[in-house]
């Protein structure tokens, strides 16, 4: 059931206050009343209200002062100012301070009701637009994360869960898997999305400049420190700070970083003043952090501090079913970027080749391959295997010749299954026994290959 809007009428004239309250209750509102601004503030502190309708001239706390306090302490509450002393100057002042409307006495009850209805209609549209904008932004911010595999669905669910918190997030995965896109999605779907999103690549900072880059420095703190410099943590204040390739932070800096994360304060090089910061930390790595901790290359306490909410990003070879969507995404992206009027498609043989490849460079490598293919295909409307970089053909030949060392486990498994089926003349029961798996497992594998278009003609 829809909640009735709650109004607070503030008027020092008892008769006027009573008339307004009775009329607005009759109009379907839940109405409280107060004799002046001081009583009104007490009531606002005790229960939630949607709209305050207040007289301007009152003892103790007048309407203008009440307006200022309401807009500071209860910004979601609307305010109407009513007065018999209305002038253009006072009306403008009230509106500048945040009043929604300014009504001069005498006025009719029907006129007041209409203005109130207009206010709530406006607020409804404003909230609806906010929600629509939020949904559109969410769609836009997730749009770069392309895929429909179960692994990608799980990652999107994890983003939804953690984005609403300020928990540190550690995103782990091979190079080129899209870890930074996930970090951006966390930021832009959080309450910090109006704040800065600052990224620093830890592997690109010289060890001697690490402290001043992250925490800042004062003028004259060291040679060539010609001016005061705000560090990355200060730049990220109120937003999200992405520490990309966190494993590359020198061991000498890790204790200082841990202290900043624990205390929420930074001290610039050359200063003793502590500067409070409000920053959400997201870190990425392509390393096995557990092994780095065991080898003494990374502090265990810092690892635990960062690894509060881990997200594992799978390599492309483990979600090969996403390749067609990624290909379509990159083809559209580069057609638009190169202003190509030709709507290009990819033929089945070329797509099958892309789905058989192991993608050691992951999504970044696939993007580069498609980018080159768009350029190499020129005026042709169909991208074919010949448009792919020659290195891929060489690797494919090598896979055929020496699959034991280059072929992925998934592809090796697929080849063994089809070899067993040929040997048993497509008898699934015998093939399953030969492979040492159940018939049900074999059937599930074949169904999976069928969905991916990887079933040879002889078994269709």
How would you sum up this structure in a few lines?
With 460 residues, the chain is an alpha/beta fold. It has helices spanning 14-26, 37-46, 63-73, 88-96, 109-143, 150-163, 179-188, 210-215, 232-235, 251-263, 289-294, 300-306, 323-337, 348-356, 362-376, 390-401, 403-406, 409-423, 428-435, 439-452; strands at 6-10, 30-34, 51-55, 78-83, 101-104, 169-172, 197-201, 216-217, 229-230, 240-244, 265-267, 274-276, 280-285, 309-312, 345-346, 382-383.
Question: Your description of this structure?
Answer:
The structure is a single chain. This protein has 460 residues and is an alpha/beta fold. The protein has three domains: 6-126, 3-Layer(aba) Sandwich (Rossmann fold); 144-312, Rossmann fold, CATH 3.40.50; 317-459, Orthogonal Bundle (Helicase, Ruva Protein, domain 3), CATH 1.10.8.60. It is 50% helix and 14% strand. It contains 20 helices and 16 strands. The chain has helices at residues 14-26, 37-46, 63-73, 88-96, 109-143, 150-163, 179-188, 210-215, 232-235, 251-263, 289-294, 300-306, 323-337, 348-356, 362-376, 390-401, 403-406, 409-423, 428-435, 439-452, and strands spanning 6-10, 30-34, 51-55, 78-83, 101-104, 169-172, 197-201, 216-217, 229-230, 240-244, 265-267, 274-276, 280-285, 309-312, 345-346, 382-383. It has a five-stranded parallel beta sheet with strand order 2-1-3-4-5, with helices on both faces. A five-stranded parallel beta sheet has the order 7-10-13-6-14. A two-stranded antiparallel sheet has the order 8-9. Helix 19 crosses helix 20. It is extended and about 100 Å long. 26% of the residues are buried.
